[in-house]
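W.,

You were right to be curious about this one. When I first looked at the sequence I had no strong expectations either way, so I just let the prediction run and decided to look at it fresh. Below is the sequence, 386 residues in total, followed by the output.
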Amino acid sequence: MRATVRQAARATVQLVVSAAMTFGSYIFVTVLLVTAIATAAVVGAFMLPETVLLIRRIAGAKRQQAGAWTGRKIPEAYQPLTGTVRERVRTAVRDPGTLTDFRWMVAYYAYGTLPVLMLPLWPLGLVVDGVWCGLLRRRAVVLPLISRLADLDAHWSTVLLKPSPKAQLTVRVEELVQTRAGAIAAHGAELRRIERDLHDGTQARLVSLSMRIGLAKRAYDQDPAAARRMLDDAQTLAEEALTDLRHVVRAIHPPILTDRGLVGAVRALAAGSALGVTVTVDGLTDGHDGPRAPAAVEAAAYFVIAESLTNAAKYSGADRADVHLARARTGLRVRVRDEGRGGADEAGGSGLLGMRRRVAALDGSVTVTSPVGGPTVIEVELPCVW
């Protein structure tokens, strides 16, 4: 009986909040009427986008409430209302999410009265279920109906507020446009970096190498010893140029990923870090044993870990960091944690923006948690098929 009463009390809170939202939606009818009249008169068309934004907030609150009750998040799919007044009005009218919210609000005026049915159930339930459960030791029959009302309210809200396939497709296309732009920007920045490294490093050494060989050829007949020294210098320059080229190639796709796999590459990266790095692995193996993620996914994960450890060594003030690699059913998960001072800022040039762009290009997600005082935790999920 106690468990039944607690569940009914929880459902009552849910229904009371729903009743308050219903009351607010009834008051909102005045705003809808004013907006409709003003829009019809053209002169007040600027009110339409603002009204649509208010409806979005109300619908969003109902999504959160229903999702908290059912444990399943209800997604949103809206087009941003930006630009001139005319553009905002056009977007508000054509957005499929506007029709979804309006349809829900109209229906909510009807089923939003469900909390009223709860009022007689409490006194009846306490009497009937008190006797039925307390004396006869049977299951409650009245008080569980309050939970059924809350379930019904959440179910109808979920069905009505769920975005249409067209709205979800529109949002998905917008996301792909943004990630494509980010991928192009990241690709351009990478090309400029490679060009700068080749120009400032390798090219300069090769030019110097060519000059040393030319001078050695001229001095060979007259001063063989000087020519030999110049050739020794040329050999040193050639080795340095090869080292620069290896660094450039390693930045594009580290050869160690091909040779040792992601786990081996990350362990080598941790061994060479200025921090004390602990690497834990879940579901992955070293080298070529077992399934591996696609090369692009491994390269992105390696870049994220390398960038995170570099940032931690430079800015966090920590002396240790933890790296966790996990194979998930839907992809690869990476988590890097340090106990530094925290306060990581994407606008501060810490490389987080480039990290997000690289991950977004693979349709992945990045979550950065870095409160002032630490710790800093970077979690990345890269979708792939194993």
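Here's what jumped out at me. The chain has a mean pLDDT of 82. And, maybe more interesting for your project: The first strand starts at residue 276 and ends at 282.

Coffee later to discuss?

I.
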